[in-house]
Fold these 2 entries.
Entry 1:
Amino acid sequence: MAATLPWRSSAAVLEGRAGGSTIPPLHRAPALRRGRYALFLFCKIVRVHPDNVHPPAPPPAPQPPRHRLERDYLRYSGMGLEFALTIGILGWLGWLLDRELGLAFPVFLLVGVFAGLVGGILRMKSRLDAASPKRRGDPESAGQKHAKHTEPR
Protein backbone atom coordinates (compact mmCIF):
# COMPACT_ATOMS: atom_id res chain seq x y z
CA MET A 1 0.00 0.00 0.00
CA ALA A 2 1.18 3.47 -0.78
CA ALA A 3 2.44 5.69 1.98
CA THR A 4 -0.22 8.00 3.28
CA LEU A 5 0.38 11.69 3.14
CA PRO A 6 -0.64 13.83 6.09
CA TRP A 7 -2.87 16.04 3.97
CA ARG A 8 -4.93 13.34 2.33
CA SER A 9 -8.59 13.87 2.85
CA SER A 10 -10.31 11.65 5.39
CA ALA A 11 -12.76 10.50 2.72
CA ALA A 12 -9.87 9.17 0.64
CA VAL A 13 -8.50 7.31 3.65
CA LEU A 14 -11.90 5.78 4.42
CA GLU A 15 -12.42 4.72 0.82
CA GLY A 16 -8.97 3.20 0.70
CA ARG A 17 -7.73 5.38 -2.10
CA ALA A 18 -4.01 5.97 -2.12
CA GLY A 19 -4.44 9.34 -3.84
CA GLY A 20 -6.28 12.21 -2.38
CA SER A 21 -5.53 15.88 -2.65
CA THR A 22 -2.07 16.79 -3.83
CA ILE A 23 -2.44 20.30 -2.41
CA PRO A 24 -1.66 20.49 1.31
CA PRO A 25 -4.16 22.55 3.29
CA LEU A 26 -2.79 25.86 4.48
CA HIS A 27 -3.99 25.48 8.07
CA ARG A 28 -1.86 22.35 8.57
CA ALA A 29 1.37 23.96 7.40
CA PRO A 30 3.94 24.96 10.00
CA ALA A 31 3.83 28.62 10.94
CA LEU A 32 7.21 29.45 9.40
CA ARG A 33 6.34 27.82 6.09
CA ARG A 34 2.88 29.28 5.56
CA GLY A 35 4.17 31.88 3.10
CA ARG A 36 5.79 29.18 1.00
CA TYR A 37 2.66 27.05 1.10
CA ALA A 38 0.53 30.02 0.10
CA LEU A 39 2.81 30.58 -2.88
CA PHE A 40 2.67 26.86 -3.65
CA LEU A 41 -1.14 26.90 -3.52
CA PHE A 42 -1.30 29.96 -5.74
CA CYS A 43 1.03 28.36 -8.29
CA LYS A 44 -1.03 25.14 -8.27
CA ILE A 45 -4.29 26.99 -8.77
CA VAL A 46 -2.97 29.25 -11.53
CA ARG A 47 -0.83 26.42 -12.92
CA VAL A 48 2.32 28.48 -12.94
CA HIS A 49 5.63 26.75 -13.01
CA PRO A 50 8.92 28.63 -12.55
CA ASP A 51 9.99 27.47 -16.01
CA ASN A 52 6.85 28.96 -17.55
CA VAL A 53 7.24 32.38 -15.97
CA HIS A 54 8.84 34.81 -18.39
CA PRO A 55 10.40 38.11 -17.40
CA PRO A 56 8.65 41.23 -18.68
CA ALA A 57 9.48 42.13 -22.25
CA PRO A 58 12.28 44.67 -22.57
CA PRO A 59 11.21 48.15 -23.66
CA PRO A 60 11.33 48.69 -27.41
CA ALA A 61 14.66 49.86 -28.74
CA PRO A 62 14.84 53.57 -29.48
CA GLN A 63 14.19 54.44 -33.08
CA PRO A 64 17.36 55.03 -35.07
CA PRO A 65 18.05 58.65 -35.99
CA ARG A 66 16.83 59.88 -39.31
CA HIS A 67 18.77 58.79 -42.28
CA ARG A 68 21.66 61.12 -43.07
CA LEU A 69 20.36 61.97 -46.54
CA GLU A 70 17.00 62.97 -45.15
CA ARG A 71 18.62 65.18 -42.51
CA ASP A 72 20.87 66.78 -45.11
CA TYR A 73 17.92 67.32 -47.43
CA LEU A 74 15.97 69.12 -44.72
CA ARG A 75 18.98 71.19 -43.68
CA TYR A 76 19.81 72.32 -47.21
CA SER A 77 16.21 73.00 -48.18
CA GLY A 78 15.92 75.21 -45.09
CA MET A 79 19.07 77.04 -46.10
CA GLY A 80 17.69 77.56 -49.62
CA LEU A 81 14.42 78.91 -48.24
CA GLU A 82 16.33 81.27 -45.95
CA PHE A 83 18.45 82.42 -48.90
CA ALA A 84 15.36 83.14 -51.05
CA LEU A 85 13.55 84.93 -48.24
CA THR A 86 16.57 87.15 -47.53
CA ILE A 87 16.69 88.30 -51.14
CA GLY A 88 12.91 88.68 -51.34
CA ILE A 89 12.47 90.66 -48.12
CA LEU A 90 15.35 93.05 -48.79
CA GLY A 91 14.16 93.52 -52.38
CA TRP A 92 10.61 94.21 -51.14
CA LEU A 93 11.90 96.77 -48.62
CA GLY A 94 13.89 98.46 -51.43
CA TRP A 95 10.76 98.52 -53.61
CA LEU A 96 8.76 100.15 -50.77
CA LEU A 97 11.47 102.76 -50.31
CA ASP A 98 11.55 103.49 -54.06
CA ARG A 99 7.76 103.89 -54.10
CA GLU A 100 7.75 106.23 -51.07
CA LEU A 101 10.49 108.39 -52.57
CA GLY A 102 8.85 108.35 -56.02
CA LEU A 103 12.01 107.37 -57.89
CA ALA A 104 11.63 106.53 -61.59
CA PHE A 105 14.52 104.03 -61.56
CA PRO A 106 14.29 101.31 -58.82
CA VAL A 107 17.65 102.02 -57.21
CA PHE A 108 16.78 100.77 -53.73
CA LEU A 109 15.11 97.66 -55.14
CA LEU A 110 18.37 96.72 -56.87
CA VAL A 111 20.40 97.61 -53.77
CA GLY A 112 18.08 95.46 -51.61
CA VAL A 113 18.28 92.50 -54.00
CA PHE A 114 22.08 92.78 -54.23
CA ALA A 115 22.44 93.13 -50.43
CA GLY A 116 20.14 90.12 -49.95
CA LEU A 117 22.16 88.09 -52.46
CA VAL A 118 25.50 88.92 -50.82
CA GLY A 119 24.13 88.45 -47.29
CA GLY A 120 22.47 85.15 -48.22
CA ILE A 121 25.63 83.80 -49.84
CA LEU A 122 27.78 84.77 -46.84
CA ARG A 123 25.27 83.27 -44.41
CA MET A 124 25.05 80.05 -46.44
CA LYS A 125 28.85 79.80 -46.66
CA SER A 126 29.26 80.23 -42.91
CA ARG A 127 26.61 77.57 -42.19
CA LEU A 128 28.14 75.12 -44.66
CA ASP A 129 31.61 75.65 -43.20
CA ALA A 130 30.27 75.03 -39.70
CA ALA A 131 28.50 71.83 -40.84
CA SER A 132 31.44 70.33 -42.71
CA PRO A 133 33.68 67.96 -40.74
CA LYS A 134 37.11 69.38 -40.11
CA ARG A 135 39.73 66.68 -40.28
CA ARG A 136 43.27 67.48 -39.30
CA GLY A 137 45.93 65.93 -41.43
CA ASP A 138 43.52 65.19 -44.26
CA PRO A 139 45.07 66.61 -47.47
CA GLU A 140 41.67 67.04 -49.13
CA SER A 141 40.37 69.29 -46.36
CA ALA A 142 43.54 71.39 -46.43
CA GLY A 143 43.41 71.87 -50.19
CA GLN A 144 46.49 69.71 -50.82
CA LYS A 145 44.79 67.04 -52.85
CA HIS A 146 47.82 65.99 -54.88
CA ALA A 147 50.57 66.70 -52.33
CA LYS A 148 52.99 63.84 -51.73
CA HIS A 149 53.99 63.02 -48.22
CA THR A 150 57.54 61.85 -47.65
CA GLU A 151 58.77 60.09 -44.58
CA PRO A 152 61.88 61.46 -42.84
CA ARG A 153 64.96 59.26 -43.04
Entry 2:
Amino acid sequence: MIAKHGFGNASMREIAKTSGLSVPLMYKYIKDKDDILHLITTMCMQDIIDFFDTGELFTGPADQNLEKAVDRYIDYIGENRRYINLVYSETRSMSAENRARVFDMEREFMGRWKGILDKGVEQKVFRPMNTELMANYLYFLCNVWSLRHWSIGKFPESEIRTV
Protein backbone atom coordinates (compact mmCIF):
# COMPACT_ATOMS: atom_id res chain seq x y z
CA MET A 1 0.00 0.00 0.00
CA ILE A 2 2.70 2.49 1.00
CA ALA A 3 4.93 1.42 -1.90
CA LYS A 4 2.06 1.80 -4.35
CA HIS A 5 0.55 5.10 -3.17
CA GLY A 6 3.40 6.74 -1.28
CA PHE A 7 3.81 7.31 2.42
CA GLY A 8 1.89 10.57 2.53
CA ASN A 9 -1.09 9.22 0.59
CA ALA A 10 -1.59 5.99 2.54
CA SER A 11 -3.95 6.23 5.49
CA MET A 12 -3.82 3.93 8.51
CA ARG A 13 -7.30 2.73 7.57
CA GLU A 14 -6.13 1.75 4.07
CA ILE A 15 -3.00 0.11 5.43
CA ALA A 16 -5.05 -1.89 7.95
CA LYS A 17 -7.51 -2.97 5.26
CA THR A 18 -4.72 -4.02 2.88
CA SER A 19 -3.05 -5.93 5.71
CA GLY A 20 -6.26 -7.70 6.66
CA LEU A 21 -6.22 -6.17 10.13
CA SER A 22 -8.70 -4.02 11.96
CA VAL A 23 -7.65 -0.46 12.72
CA PRO A 24 -7.87 -1.00 16.52
CA LEU A 25 -5.72 -4.14 16.27
CA MET A 26 -3.15 -2.30 14.19
CA TYR A 27 -2.99 0.53 16.73
CA LYS A 28 -2.44 -2.02 19.47
CA TYR A 29 1.01 -2.76 18.01
CA ILE A 30 2.05 0.50 16.36
CA LYS A 31 1.64 4.19 17.08
CA ASP A 32 1.45 5.61 13.58
CA LYS A 33 2.50 5.27 9.93
CA ASP A 34 6.03 6.27 10.86
CA ASP A 35 6.29 3.09 12.92
CA ILE A 36 5.13 1.01 9.95
CA LEU A 37 7.76 2.53 7.69
CA HIS A 38 10.40 2.02 10.37
CA LEU A 39 9.37 -1.63 10.82
CA ILE A 40 9.56 -2.28 7.07
CA THR A 41 12.97 -0.64 6.86
CA THR A 42 14.28 -2.47 9.91
CA MET A 43 13.06 -5.80 8.52
CA CYS A 44 14.84 -5.21 5.20
CA MET A 45 18.09 -4.14 6.81
CA GLN A 46 18.04 -6.96 9.37
CA ASP A 47 17.55 -9.57 6.63
CA ILE A 48 20.71 -8.58 4.83
CA ILE A 49 22.71 -7.99 8.02
CA ASP A 50 21.79 -11.52 9.11
CA PHE A 51 23.26 -12.90 5.89
CA PHE A 52 26.52 -11.07 6.44
CA ASP A 53 26.67 -12.38 10.00
CA THR A 54 26.43 -16.05 8.97
CA GLY A 55 30.18 -16.09 8.47
CA GLU A 56 29.86 -17.31 4.86
CA LEU A 57 31.55 -14.18 3.63
CA PHE A 58 34.62 -14.49 5.79
CA THR A 59 35.80 -18.01 4.99
CA GLY A 60 37.89 -17.42 1.88
CA PRO A 61 40.14 -14.86 0.26
CA ALA A 62 38.75 -11.33 0.42
CA ASP A 63 38.24 -11.01 -3.33
CA GLN A 64 36.06 -14.14 -3.32
CA ASN A 65 34.25 -12.92 -0.21
CA LEU A 66 33.54 -9.60 -1.90
CA GLU A 67 32.23 -11.36 -5.00
CA LYS A 68 29.93 -13.51 -2.81
CA ALA A 69 28.74 -10.42 -0.96
CA VAL A 70 27.91 -8.55 -4.17
CA ASP A 71 26.17 -11.61 -5.65
CA ARG A 72 24.08 -12.20 -2.55
CA TYR A 73 23.20 -8.55 -2.13
CA ILE A 74 22.11 -8.26 -5.77
CA ASP A 75 19.99 -11.40 -5.24
CA TYR A 76 18.44 -9.74 -2.19
CA ILE A 77 17.81 -6.53 -4.09
CA GLY A 78 16.21 -8.41 -6.97
CA GLU A 79 13.84 -10.16 -4.56
CA ASN A 80 13.08 -7.01 -2.54
CA ARG A 81 13.22 -4.18 -5.07
CA ARG A 82 9.89 -2.68 -3.96
CA TYR A 83 11.04 -2.52 -0.34
CA ILE A 84 14.42 -1.04 -1.27
CA ASN A 85 12.76 1.66 -3.37
CA LEU A 86 10.26 2.37 -0.60
CA VAL A 87 13.02 2.78 1.95
CA TYR A 88 15.03 5.10 -0.30
CA SER A 89 12.06 7.22 -1.30
CA GLU A 90 10.35 7.47 2.08
CA THR A 91 13.16 7.59 4.67
CA ARG A 92 12.94 11.37 4.59
CA SER A 93 9.31 11.06 5.76
CA MET A 94 10.32 9.29 8.98
CA SER A 95 10.63 11.00 12.30
CA ALA A 96 14.15 12.17 13.13
CA GLU A 97 14.39 9.43 15.76
CA ASN A 98 13.43 6.60 13.39
CA ARG A 99 15.56 8.05 10.59
CA ALA A 100 18.56 8.06 12.96
CA ARG A 101 17.87 4.39 13.79
CA VAL A 102 17.78 3.50 10.10
CA PHE A 103 21.04 5.36 9.47
CA ASP A 104 22.60 3.50 12.41
CA MET A 105 21.58 0.18 10.84
CA GLU A 106 23.02 1.30 7.51
CA ARG A 107 26.30 2.22 9.22
CA GLU A 108 26.27 -1.21 10.87
CA PHE A 109 25.79 -2.80 7.46
CA MET A 110 28.59 -0.68 5.98
CA GLY A 111 30.81 -2.22 8.64
CA ARG A 112 30.30 -5.63 7.00
CA TRP A 113 31.43 -4.34 3.62
CA LYS A 114 34.30 -2.49 5.25
CA GLY A 115 35.39 -5.68 7.02
CA ILE A 116 35.67 -7.53 3.71
CA LEU A 117 37.65 -4.67 2.19
CA ASP A 118 39.93 -4.33 5.25
CA LYS A 119 40.71 -8.04 5.02
CA GLY A 120 41.51 -7.64 1.32
CA VAL A 121 43.88 -4.75 1.97
CA GLU A 122 45.51 -6.74 4.77
CA GLN A 123 45.89 -9.78 2.47
CA LYS A 124 47.25 -7.46 -0.24
CA VAL A 125 44.45 -8.64 -2.54
CA PHE A 126 43.18 -5.04 -2.76
CA ARG A 127 45.29 -1.92 -3.01
CA PRO A 128 45.37 0.37 0.05
CA MET A 129 42.24 2.51 0.09
CA ASN A 130 39.76 4.29 2.30
CA THR A 131 37.71 1.16 3.01
CA GLU A 132 34.89 3.05 4.71
CA LEU A 133 34.37 5.20 1.63
CA MET A 134 34.68 2.21 -0.73
CA ALA A 135 32.16 0.26 1.39
CA ASN A 136 29.65 3.05 0.85
CA TYR A 137 30.34 3.08 -2.89
CA LEU A 138 29.84 -0.68 -3.16
CA TYR A 139 26.63 -0.56 -1.17
CA PHE A 140 25.22 2.20 -3.31
CA LEU A 141 26.36 0.66 -6.60
CA CYS A 142 24.54 -2.55 -5.69
CA ASN A 143 21.41 -0.54 -4.83
CA VAL A 144 21.44 1.00 -8.31
CA TRP A 145 20.04 -2.37 -9.50
CA SER A 146 16.86 -1.44 -7.65
CA LEU A 147 16.82 2.34 -7.84
CA ARG A 148 17.54 2.55 -11.56
CA HIS A 149 15.95 -0.74 -12.60
CA TRP A 150 13.68 1.20 -14.96
CA SER A 151 16.85 2.10 -16.89
CA ILE A 152 19.21 -0.84 -16.40
CA GLY A 153 16.63 -3.61 -16.04
CA LYS A 154 17.10 -4.41 -19.72
CA PHE A 155 20.57 -5.77 -18.97
CA PRO A 156 20.96 -9.35 -17.81
CA GLU A 157 21.60 -9.72 -14.10
CA SER A 158 24.85 -11.55 -14.89
CA GLU A 159 26.15 -8.39 -16.53
CA ILE A 160 25.12 -6.25 -13.55
CA ARG A 161 27.11 -8.54 -11.26
CA THR A 162 30.33 -8.26 -13.26
CA VAL A 163 30.45 -4.51 -13.76
